[in-house]
Amino acid sequence: MHPTSLVITVLVLFLNVASQTSEALDPFACDPKDGTSRNFTFCQVNLPTKSRVGDLIGRLTLQEKIGLLVNGAAAVPRLGMKGYEWWSEALHGVSNVGPGTKFGGAFPGATSFPQVITTAASFNATLWEAIGRVVSDEARAMFNGGVAGLTYWSPNVNIFRDPRWGRGQETPGEDPVVAGKYGVSYVRGLQGNDGERLKVAACCKHYTAYDVDNWNGVDRTFNAKVNKQDMEDTFNVPFKMCVKEGNVASIMCSYNQVNGIPTCADPKLLKKIIRGLDLDCGPFLGQYTEGAVKKGLLNEKEINNALLNTLTVQMRLGMFDGEPSSTPYESSSQLPLTYLRHHSIAVIGPNSNVTATMIGNYAGVPCKYTHTLQGIGRYASTIYQQGCANVACAGDQPFDAALDAARQADATVLVMGLDLSIEAESRDRTGLLLPGRQQELVSKVAAASKGPTILVLMSGRSIDVSFAEMINWSH
Q1: How confident is the model at residue 334 (pLDDT cuts 50, 70, 90)?
Q2: Span of the secretion signal (predicted)?
Q3: Which residues contact 107 (CB under 8 A, 6 or more apart)?
């Protein structure tokens, strides 16, 4: 079954980005309009990431390198790199906590899902990953609109065993395995499944044994006294799962000490278990790193190693691939649609402008409906054709008008599926295929479409659309 509302929300959101924000046209680096920077080796997308990162680090001065070690990373104008804010949050939706996201204008808000302690109680890993996908869709849209970054310091997988802890609501609960499975699923939803490519970069936090913020005068820099067994069997389990199973892009060390050593300065935790401290949320490294190098306390090679990790993440996010809207975030080449290429949208199908179909049976009275045609029409010019008179799509009605609409528009959205006339109490189906001639309409419209074709299904049950594998959707 295809979640229609999700598909349409994503589609409309990306149209919204391109049509209302000029920042979407400005790349972070490797601007194709810049005749100098586009020829740098690190801008060549056909080369291995490691080679590109190595080339970039080799071009940076010590001062430029140091400027990249903090969350508010400095610009490097001579190499065509803009400044970047690493700190954004997405605990249960794109958040306004942290300087990396800016709501307002074309982006007045984002979807807020239930707090993690509640969602984790469902024990539904599929749901956790699905939430991550929606959050990362919206995060990518905001990035393309120039109002957010692509690095999100979520999820929080700390163990919640004292109900007095103020941040317990952010966590998946007291069970290390559940916390780990939640972290893995949410990370996969955020980062996508396109190989090395990252949709957004997730961060499992706070490593490790952190569960006090301000209790009876004890603040979050407290000393957690933890034996080896508790560390291995409890506190480190979610972080190990995040790394080994979720392939998380980053880990955040915690505020506290563990057995008398601050976690962010513990060589055992950061070098023998996790791979080092690469970025500082704050000004410290920016202020004191150069002096440490001059005094021989720090080797520039260690700075290079830190940048190797952070710049690799940015490369995997596509931030050095040129214009953002040309950078894929999923394996699909059809989405996102962008106003740069898709000024007009053909909206075709019997469910294009339905309302009650969206809420199913045994439903209440919604405050407001926004059907698909209305939603897309807010952000692009639309050409509407019903195609079939209803979802039964019976008879021999011609599809000529629908095919003409597909030929005219820059992209086509087909809204097909079922409604309560076909699936409801006392109405079972005899098969799983699209009703009547819907499949024929889909195939003919996709063949006629001038631009990419998006198929959206509204239904309360599974539909067999295996025929779609044989269709060229891209044109």
Answers
A1: low
A2: 1-24
A3: 141, 142, 145, 147, 148
Distance CA 421, CA 258 (A): 63
**What stretch(es) of the chain map to CATH 3.40.50.1700?**
4-14+334-470
Strands (E), 358-419: 381-385, 411-417
Between 336 and 333, the higher pLDDT residue: 336
Q: How far is CA 448 from CA 387, 405, 441, 453, 454, in A?
A: 14, 9, 11, 10, 13
Fold (topology level) of 4-14+334-470: Rossmann fold (3.40.50)
Helix or strand (DSSP H, E) at 204: strand 203-207
Tell me the pLDDT tens digit for each residue of 156-172: 999 999 888 999 999 99
- Helix, strand, coil share (%) of the chain residues, nearest 5: 40, 15, 50
HSE at residue 175, side-chain half, CA atoms within 13 A, is 8
Is residue 1 scored above 50 in pLDDT? Answer: no
Q: Residue 56: pLDDT above 60?
A: yes
Query: What token pair was written down for 39?
Result: 């020829």
Which pLDDT score, from 0 to 100, does residue 325 have?
56
Structure tokens at 346: 């053909």
- Hey, CA dihedral for 129, 131, 137, 141, is it positive or negative? negative
CB 29 within 8 A of CB 315: no
Q: Are 65 and 304 in contact (CB under 8 A)?
A: yes
Give residue 319's pLDDT. 95
Three-class SS state of 103: coil
What class, spelled out in words, does domain 25-326 have in CATH? alpha beta
Report the half-sphere exposure of 113 (CA within 13 A, side-chain side): 23
